[in-house]
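Record pair follows.
FIRST:
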Amino acid sequence: MTQLIYILAFAFSTTLTNCSPKSETSVKSSTTQTESKDLSKLSKSVFASGCFWCVEAVFESVEGVEEAISGYAGGSAAQANYKDVSAGITDHAEAVEVYYDPAKVSYETLLVVFFDSQDPTTLNQQGPDRGRQYRSAIFYKDEIEKVAAESYIAKLTKEEVYNKPITTTLEPLTKFYDAEEYHQNFEERNPNQGYVRAVSVPRLNRFKKKHPELLKKDSKH
C-alpha cells in the first residue's frame, strides 16, 4: 500500500505545473492576510527539505512561528522561478523562509523541527520528489546559525539517530526568492489536491504525532 501511495504521489508531482491555484478570491484573501502581518521585528531562517508545500505547512504548525514563505535558495542563477527550479537548471532548492519569535521558539528548536519532519539521509530526495531542487539543506545567515546547525548534526551523528549518514548540506544564504503567489499556503488552500493528500498531509501528521508539545493550539487536531 505504501509503495502504491508513493507511485501515485510521484505521478502527481510530475504534473504540478499543470495544477491551477484555487479561486481568485482565495488568492487575494491569502495575500491580504500575509501583507497584514508585521514581520519586521521577527527573526528569520531558511530551510529546505523537499517540496516547499510540505515544509511550509510543518513550520507554520509550530508555536512561535508567525509566518513561513515558500521560495527558492542556494542557486547560482540570478533569478529563480518555479519552472526553472523544477527543471533543475538553476541549482536552487525549494526552500522556506521561517519568521519566528525567538522569545517563543529558539533556532535550536527549529533545527529539531527541520530534522524530525523529513528523512535527512536521502540525498537529493524527499519521498517521491527527486533532484537537487529537493535537497535537504540549511541556509545559514551567519556564523551563529552555522555553528548551531553543525553542532546539532554532530549530536545526531554521535547518537546514531539514523542508520545512514546525514546528507543535509550547510550552505550560506546569499539570496532568498519568494515563490509565486499561488504556492503560498498551498496545503491549507488546496486540501484536496492529489499531492497534498498523498504526501503533504501525511508528512505533517507524522510530525504532529512526534512533537505535539511544539504545536500551536489550533494545530493539535
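SECOND:
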Amino acid sequence: MKVVTYIAQFLKAKGIDTVFELQGGMITRIIDELYREGDITIVSMHHEQAAAFAADAYARVKNKPGVALATSGPGATNLITGIGNCYFDSVPAIFITGQVNINEQKGDRAIRQLGFQETDIVSIVKPITKAAYAITSADQIPIVLDEAYRLCMEGRQGPVLIDLPMNLQHAVCADQLILTKPQKPVTNNTALENYITRFTQAYQQCNKPLILAGRGVRTSGCMDKMIQLSEHWNIPVLTSLNGLDTIPFNHANRVGFIGSYGNRWAN
C-alpha cells in the first residue's frame, strides 16, 4: 500500500480518532488520505503551535498519543513550543512533518537550502523528543511508525517526530500493518514488597503524613489506588500542576496544588 495509506490505517488501528494540523503543500497527501480513510476527525487549526498544543491536550485526556501534522520549514518549526511542552510534561505525542522531495535536499552541499522551505527539523527537535526520524525510504515507515508509537508510550512518556519527504508519501511500502503493543515494565515482586514494607514503617513513624501526587499517578493508571491509600489512612493529598486531576476536586482529602502558581494554603 502507499505510505500515506499505511499512516492512516496505522493511526486508526491504534484508536487515534482525531488529528490536528495546519495545511501545507508538503502534507496535503497525508491529510487527503486521512480523510479518505474515514473515522478520523481532522481538525484544522489557525497555527501549527495550536495544533501541537491540541495534540498535547488530546493525549492528556485520552491517555494515547496526540497527533499533529505540519508542512516543511516554518510549518515544522512552529510546532517546536508544543513539542517542548510535551517533552517536559511527559506527554505522548506523534508529530509528522512534511519535507521537500529527496532530490531537492541539500545533503552535503555547502549551501543553506536547496528545496523550497527545506529545514533540518530532525536535528532541531532531537533535544526535546524521545526520538526524531528523517525518513529516506518508504520501507522505513512501518518500522518507524511502530517504534515511534511504542517509544512515546513506554516508560517516561514523551513526543516523537517523523519527517517525511513529499515524494515518499505516495511510494509503496508494506501491506501488513505492524502493531506491536508498548511493553509494560516487568514487576520485581521482591523489590515491591520491600518498598511496601519500608513505606509502611516510614508511615508509622510519621507525625504529619502527606501525599504529593504528580502526573505519573495518572500515566501509570494508579489514580484509584492512590485515592484508596489516601482514604484508608486518611492522608491529605497535594498535587503538582500536572497532577491536578489525579483526585476529585471535591474529595475530602484534597488540599490543593503546590508550586509557583499553586494555592497559598497548600504551599
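COMMENT: The two ends are 56 Å apart (CA to CA).
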